[in-house]
Specification:
The chain is an alpha+beta fold. It has helices at about 1-30, 50-60, 65-90, 125-135, 140-150, 160-170, 175-180, 240-245, 250-255, 260-275, 345, 370-375; strands at about 40-45, 100-105, 110-120, 140, 185-195, 200-205, 225-230, 230-240, 285-290, 295-300, 305-310, 315-320, 320-325, 330-335, 355, 360, 380-384.
């Protein structure tokens, strides 16, 4: 009899434990059933220049390819297109005239790798993918990243073209205002959900006029990118130091794990950044999140954050559904193809353009009317 009573006590305790555990599990994932997908496959990426990368990634997914193959191939397209455009028309050198690129990648199994400040390699995301497949490498920087690329068959290129060299020379002789007005940032993160319900993500970044030895958020796993295949993934764009302060992308995934929708998780991450940034008018950060059931969230500090969305039925640009902050000032900039012909100077209705070796547009005066761009004979003027 005694043994039977003990057995019943143990059985009852075990049943109570399982009930409580199931209750917490149901509460933490309220509204989310990973087996009920809203539509596969899906690709999202930061900013409007994610359209053609998304299309490349999407075509791989339509052919039953994996999410990890899709994000790598998509960002190779992004790197090629943006490098070609900016090397030929703008110049993306750092303060010392070098072109250094960053990238990271993470698959559905939680395996990841990054490269930072790598020179002479056109597609750093592929170097990161190779490092991911050859663990224990996690983060390779500078010369070591280049050495790894060389040892694994990647071709070195002289990315500093004659136009970039000339642009850097002009920059070195210019005022700080001129260099600021011509700063270029290309920061793209991508998340994909494939036909098998698996998630992967990647990001790549390059910017002009950055501090020579600075590494930003984008190759930092957990801050610049994070994937949990049971929950979802997140990527980011914007001022990296603000994101690192809160381990932004991992924070969003953890919030989704505990009942937050992707949109609400992005919003809370932004609110945490704002609580640490009293001068939040001066920063921009935008988060993207993709949950395992296909729900998407987007939020930014400033108004104006847009993202590219692809599924089987569309490939389009969308505005973040929820924004806080004060709004990004839109204005036109003049790149280093400017021949100083004076056409834009004559057409600007608000006198926002000043002369120099190349002409400069004052962002505080520019009304973004486009009159200057319409008359430029060398197409050197474009929106920021």
């Amino acid at each position: 009899m005694s043994n039977r009573r003990e057995f019943l006590k143990i059985t009852a305790s075990g049943a109570l434990f399982l009930s409580v555990r199931n209750l917490f599990s149901a509460t933490s994932l309220k509204g989310f059933n990973g087996n009920q997908n809203k539509g596969l496959p899906i690709v999202i990426s930061t900013w409007k220049y994610g359209l053609s990368p998304n299309l490349k990634a999407g075509n791989i997914l339509l052919n039953k390819g994996s999410a990890i193959d899709a994000v790598e191939a998509g960002l190779v397209v992004a790197e090629n297109e943006l490098l070609e455009k900016d090397l030929n028309y703008n110049g993306i050198f750092d303060y010392d005239g070098h072109i250094k690129l960053d990238a990271c990648i993470m698959n559905d199994k939680g395996i990841y790798a990054s490269v930072a400040s790598i020179e002479h390699i056109r597609n750093p995301v592929s170097v990161a993918r190779r490092a991911m497949n050859k663990r224990p490498y996690i983060l390779l920087v500078g010369d070591d990243a280049l050495k790894f690329a060389n040892e694994n068959g990647f071709k070195e290129e002289n990315l500093l073209t004659p136009k970039s060299k000339e642009a850097w020379k002009i920059f070195k002789e210019s005022s700080s205002q001129k260099s600021h007005n011509n700063k270029i940032e290309r920061l793209i993160g991508m998340l994909a959900l494939d036909s098998f319900g698996n998630l992967s993500g990647a990001s790549t970044s390059f910017e002009s006029l950055k501090t020579t030895d600075r590494v930003g958020v984008f190759p930092i796993i957990g801050s610049g990118l994070y994937i949990d295949n049971e929950i979802g993934g997140a990527c980011v764009t914007g001022i990296g130091e603000s994101v690192i302060d809160i381990s932004g992308c991992r924070t969003i995934v953890e919030l989704m794990k505990h009942a937050k929708s992707p949109e609400d998780a992005c919003k809370e991450a932004i609110e945490r950044i704002l609580s640490k940034q009293p001068n939040n008018k001066d920063i921009q950060v935008g988060f993207l999140a993709l949950r395992k059931d296909g729900e998407i969230g987007a939020c930014s500090v400033q108004k104006g954050f847009r993202y590219s969305y692809w599924d089987e039925n569309e490939n389009s640009i969308k505005d973040a559904k929820y924004t806080v902050g004060f709004g990004v000032k839109e204005y036109y900039v003049i790149n280093y193809d400017c021949i100083a012909c004076g056409a834009c100077l004559k057409e600007c209705p608000v006198k926002a353009i000043s002369q120099g070796e190349i002409y400069i547009i004052d962002p505080n005066l520019c009304t973004c009317c486009g009159a200057c761009a319409d008359v430029c004979p060398v197409e050197a003027i474009h929106p920021n």
